[in-house]
C-alpha cells in the first residue's frame, strides 16, 4: 500500500462470466470494517466473455485496493486461485467465489481470531442460501481444532482464511485444469499440514449462494469416472497422513457418506436419469469396495449402513425402492406451547419421523432395536443384523430448534432440552415409534450467536436427527390452542426493540425483531377496556395491550391523527406490566391537554419503544373530540384478525407455559408461575382457559 501499512488480508476471487451475480460479492468486499489500507481484493478474471472484465476494471480504477488480473480461460477455479495466491500481498489469503458474499465484519473478525490463536487456517461460520453448508462444525468456536477433536472434515470448500507463509512453506496450491474436487485436495492437505486451525462460529462470515440459474460450478453434471478419480486424490492424502485405524476410517467415512451413499438415497438417486444410474452405481461400488475397509461402514448410522450393504451386494433395483420410500420421510412436529418467561420465548414441541402419514417404526427383538426397511423379504433376509441394529443410534436421537434469517439464511441454534418416548404401535407388539419432546429457549439478547438477535425476520425451524436421517420442518403449522393464545409481542428489559412472534400465511412460526414487518399491528390486540379519563383539561388515554413488558418504560409515544386534516398530535407515553384476565400483558397510558385535539375524529397510533428502534402502528380505536368542553369519546373498531390456529393431532397433550412474564406484576400470580415452572420440566398438561 502507498502508506506502507501491512496488508492483513488478500481476498482472492476467481471470476468467470458471473454477470450480475458478482455485484453482491463486490458490495460485500467494499463494505468491510477493515480500512482500505488493511486489505485487498484480487479478482482473477479467467477469460470471461461477458461484461465482467470491464466492470472489474472500472472497480479497480475507483478503488486502489481492488485489483484485477486477466488471463486466458483455464477451465476451472484452480489456476485463478493459484494466480491470486502468487499475487497476494496480505499476511492471510481468503478465498471467495464470485457468486457468494461475505459478512461486513468478516475479514476483521477472522484476522483478529487468526492472530490471537496464531492460526494457519481460520474457518468462519457459513450460511447457505439454497446450498448446503456445515452445521455441526459451527455449534461453537474452536481456538484450536483438529481432525480428531472437531468435525473439520465436514468443511472441504476453500472458503477459508489461510496464512500466506503457511501455504508457501508447504507448497500448497490447487490442482489446475478442468476437473472436480480440487478444493477437497487442497483443503485436506492444508488440514494435515496446519499446526493450528481455528473455527469462528459467533459471526456469519461467508454466505454460500445458489444462483437462480443453477450455473454454480458445483451444480454441473457429474461424470462418474472422472469425478471419483479426482475424489481418490483426496483419499490418497488421508492415507498418506494416517495409520490404519479409527481416525482414518472416520475421515474416509466423510467421502463415503456424502459423495457416495447420499447420492444413492432418496431424491438424489431418483433424480438421476435411469440411463446414468448404472454408471454412477458401478463407479461407487468399485471405489468403495477397493478403498474402504469394514470399519468405515461400521461407523455409519443404520439407514446408511443398509445403503452400504445394498451397494456391496450389487442391488441397484433395491436401492431405487428404498430411495422412493426414503423420499417420503418427513419431520412431523407439533408446537405444544410457547410463552414468554424470564425474558425468553419458551417453545415446547413434540416431533417424530414419518414416511408419508405413517410413523417410522422400529422392531425391538432380543434386547436390540432394529431398523426394518421396506424391502422385498429376500433382500431384508440377506441384510446382516448388525447393519439393522439401531439401538445406539436411537438413543442418540435429538431435536434442534434453529432460527434462520429470512434475509441472509444465517442460522443459530437455540438451547434445547429433550426427552424421548417409545410408543408401541399395537398393544403388546414389538414394533414401536419414537417421539421426541423438546423445549427450546429463545433469548433475543443472546440468540444471535451470543449477541442480540439482529433486526429482521427469523423463521423457526425444528430439526430431528435420528438413525441417519436429518429432517427439517417449519414449526407452528401444527400447534395447540394454547400455543396460539400465548403468541404475543414483547418489549423486554434491556432490549431497544419489539420482538413479535407471529404465524405466517402458511401458519408457520416466525419472529419479527424490530418491526421489520407490519405484524405488530395485527398481534397487538386491544381489549375492550381501553378508556379515556378526563380531569379538567387533562386527558389520559389508557389502553391495555396484548404485549409483554419486562419493566416500566417511558420511551413510548402515542400519536393522534385527525382524520379530516391529517393533523398530528404526538405525546409521550408509558408502558407498564399488567395482567389481563390472568394473562401477562401491558398497559399504555398517555396524557395530553384536551385543547390540543380540535373537534373531530382522531385515529390513534402507538410506538412502544424509542423512535430509533420502533415505529408507529395504528390501533383499532379512535377518539372523537366534540366542539366545546364536552367529554371526549372513544370508539373501538373491528380488531385485526389473527391467523387461524393449526390442526391438532394425536402426538400428545401440549405442555402449558401459560404466557408467563418476568415482570414484578406477575409475582403474585402464583398459579401461573407454578404452571411455567412445571412446564420447563415438561410435565404439565394443557391449561384450561
Keywords for this structure?
eight-stranded mixed beta sheet, alpha+beta, 19 helices, globular, 4 domains, single chain, 26% helix
Question: What report would you give on this structure?
Answer:
The chain has 19 helices and 32 strands. It has 689 residues and is α+β, with helices and mostly antiparallel strands. It folds into 4 domains: 1-215, Spore Coat Polysaccharide Biosynthesis Protein SpsA, Chain A (Alpha-Beta Complex); 221-301, no CATH class; 333-358 and 389-519 and 653-680, no CATH class; 526-636, Purple acid phosphatase-like, N-terminal (Immunoglobulin-like, Sandwich), CATH 2.60.40. Helix 6 (182-193) runs parallel beside helix 7 (224-241) and helix 7 packs antiparallel against helix 8 (246-260). The longest helix is centred in the middle third of the chain and has 18 residues, at 224-241. The protein is globular and about 95 Å long.
Amino acid at each position: 500500500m502507498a502508506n506502507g501499512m501491512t496488508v492483513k488480508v488478500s481476498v482472492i476471487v476467481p471470476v468467470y462470466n458471473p454477470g450480475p451475480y458478482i455485484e453482491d460479492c463486490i458490495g460485500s468486499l467494499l463494505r468491510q470494517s477493515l480500512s482500505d489500507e488493511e486489505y485487498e481484493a484480487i479478482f482473477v478474471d479467467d477469460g470471461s466473455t461477458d461484461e465482467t472484465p470491464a466492470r472489474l476494471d472500472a472497480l479497480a480504477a475507483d478503488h486502489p485496493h481492488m485489483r484485477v488480473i486477466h488471463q486466458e480461460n483455464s477451465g476451472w477455479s484452480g489456476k485463478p486461485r493459484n494466480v491470486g495466491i502468487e499475487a497476494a500481498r496480505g499476511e492471510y489469503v481468503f478465498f471467495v467465489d464470485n457468486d457468494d458474499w461475505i459478512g461486513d465484519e468478516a475479514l476483521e473478525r477472522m484476522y483478529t481470531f487468526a492472530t490471537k490463536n496464531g492460526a494457519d487456517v481460520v474457518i468462519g461460520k457459513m450460511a447457505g442460501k439454497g446450498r448446503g453448508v456445515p452445521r455441526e462444525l459451527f455449534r461453537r468456536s474452536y481456538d484450536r481444532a483438529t481432525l480428531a477433536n472437531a468435525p473439520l472434515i465436514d468443511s472441504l470448500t476453500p472458503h477459508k482464511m489461510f496464512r500466506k507463509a503457511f501455504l508457501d512453506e508447504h507448497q500448497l496450491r490447487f490442482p489446475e485444469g478442468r476437473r472436480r474436487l480440487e478444493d477437497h485436495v487442497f483443503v485436506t492437505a492444508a488440514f494435515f499440514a496446519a499446526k493450528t486451525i481455528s473455527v469462528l462460529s459467533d459471526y456469519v462470515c461467508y454466505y454460500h449462494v445458489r444462483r437462480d440459474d443453477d450455473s454454480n460450478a458445483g451444480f454441473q453434471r457429474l461424470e462418474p469416472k472422472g469425478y471419483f478419480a479426482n475424489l481418490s486424490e483426496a483419499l490418497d492424502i488421508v492415507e498418506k497422513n494416517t495409520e490404519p485405524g479409527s481416525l482414518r476410517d472416520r475421515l474416509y467415512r466423510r467421502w463415503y457418506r456424502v459423495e457416495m451413499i447420499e447420492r444413492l438415497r432418496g431424491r438424489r438417486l431418483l433424480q438421476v436419469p435411469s440411463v446414468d444410474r448404472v454408471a454412477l452405481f458401478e463407479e461407487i461400488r468399485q471405489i468403495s469396495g477397493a478403498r474402504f475397509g469394514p470399519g468405515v461402514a461400521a461407523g455409519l448410522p443404520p439407514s446408511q449402513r443398509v445403503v452400504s450393504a445394498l451397494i456391496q451386494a450389487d442391488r441397484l433395483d433395491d436401492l431405487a425402492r428404498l430411495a422412493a420410500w426414503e423420499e417420503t420421510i418427513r419431520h412431523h412436529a407439533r408446537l405444544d406451547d410457547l410463552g414468554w418467561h424470564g425474558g425468553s420465548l419458551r417453545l415446547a414441541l413434540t416431533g417424530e419421523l414419518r414416511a408419508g402419514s405413517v410413523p417410522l417404526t422400529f422392531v425391538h427383538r432380543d434386547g436390540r432395536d432394529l431398523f426394518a426397511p421396506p424391502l422385498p423379504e429376500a433382500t431384508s433376509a440377506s441384510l446382516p443384523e448388525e447393519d439393522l441394529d439401531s439401538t445406539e443410534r436411537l438413543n442418540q436421537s435429538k431435536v434442534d430448534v434453529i432460527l434462520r434469517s429470512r434475509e441472509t439464511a444465517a442460522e443459530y441454534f437455540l438451547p434445547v432440552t429433550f426427552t424421548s418416548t417409545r410408543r408401541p404401535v399395537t398393544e403388546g407388539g414389538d414394533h414401536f415409534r419414537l417421539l421426541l419432546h423438546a423445549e427450546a429457549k429463545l433469548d433475543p439478547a443472546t440468540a444471535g450467536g451470543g449477541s442480540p438477535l439482529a433486526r429482521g425476520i427469523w423463521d423457526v425451524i425444528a430439526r430431528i436427527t435420528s438413525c441417519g436421517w436429518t429432517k427439517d420442518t417449519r414449526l407452528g403449522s401444527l400447534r395447540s390452542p394454547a400455543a396460539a393464545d400465548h403468541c404475543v409481542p414483547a418489549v423486554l428489559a434491556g432490549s431497544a426493540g419489539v420482538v413479535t412472534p407471529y404465524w405466517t400465511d402458511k401458519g408457520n412460526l416466525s419472529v419479527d425483531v424490530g418491526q421489520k414487518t407490519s405484524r405488530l399491528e395485527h398481534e397487538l390486540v386491544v381489549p375492550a377496556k381501553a378508556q379515556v379519563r378526563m380531569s379538567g383539561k387533562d386527558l389520559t388515554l389508557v389502553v391495555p395491550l396484548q404485549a409483554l413488558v419486562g419493566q416500566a418504560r417511558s420511551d413510548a409515544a402515542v400519536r393522534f391523527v385527525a382524520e379530516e386534516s391529517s393533523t398530528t398530535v404526538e405525546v409521550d407515553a408509558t408502558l407498564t406490566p399488567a395482567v389481563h384476565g390472568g394473562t401477562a400483558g401491558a398497559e399504555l397510558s398517555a396524557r395530553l391537554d384536551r385543547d390540543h385535539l380540535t373537534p373531530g375524529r382522531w385515529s390513534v397510533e402507538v410506538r412502544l419503544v424509542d423512535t430509533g428502534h420502533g415505529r408507529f402502528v395504528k390501533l383499532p380505536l379512535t377518539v372523537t373530540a366534540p366542539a366545546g368542553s364536552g367529554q371526549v369519546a372513544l370508539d373501538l373498531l373491528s380488531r385485526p384478525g389473527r391467523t387461524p390456529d393449526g390442526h391438532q393431532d394425536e402426538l400428545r397433550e401440549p405442555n402449558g407455559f401459560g404466557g408467563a412474564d418476568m415482570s414484578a406484576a406477575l409475582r403474585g400470580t402464583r398459579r401461573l408461575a407454578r404452571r411455567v415452572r412445571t412446564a420447563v420440566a415438561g410435565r404439565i398438561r394443557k391449561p384450561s382457559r
